[in-house]
Amino acid sequence: MTEEAKVKGPASYFPSIEKKYGHPVTYWLDLLKTLDGKKHMEMVAVLKTEHGMGHGHANALVAHHLATTAKNG
Questions:
Q1: pLDDT class of 6 with cuts at 50, 70, 90
Q2: Where in the chain are the domains?
């Protein structure tokens, strides 16, 4: 894979998130939509405490979700 084709940033975690937690990334992003209005770390805490997600994976999903909603919102 060339440098230009490598996925960077939070999305680079997506394949391992799907493999480890058994749901597609869209599942997690849809779940985060239900938490809109909460702060970044509050969303991370929900993923960690209610879904057993590790901090890095939870943080990557929340960062991607917030960046995407900021662009589209």
A1: confident
A2: 10-72
User: b/e for 37-71, b at 16 or more Cβ within 10 A?
Assistant: eeeeeebbebbbeeeebeeebbbbbbbbbbeeeee
For residue 22, the SS3 value is coil
Q: Which residues contact 23 (CB under 8 A, 6 or more apart)?
A: none
**What whole-number distance in Å separates Cα of residue 70 and Cα of residue 49?**
25
| Beta partners for residue 38, in sequence order | 36
Give tens-digit pLDDT for 31-68. Answer: 999 999 999 999 999 999 999 999 999 999 999 999 99
Structure tokens at 72: 């589209």
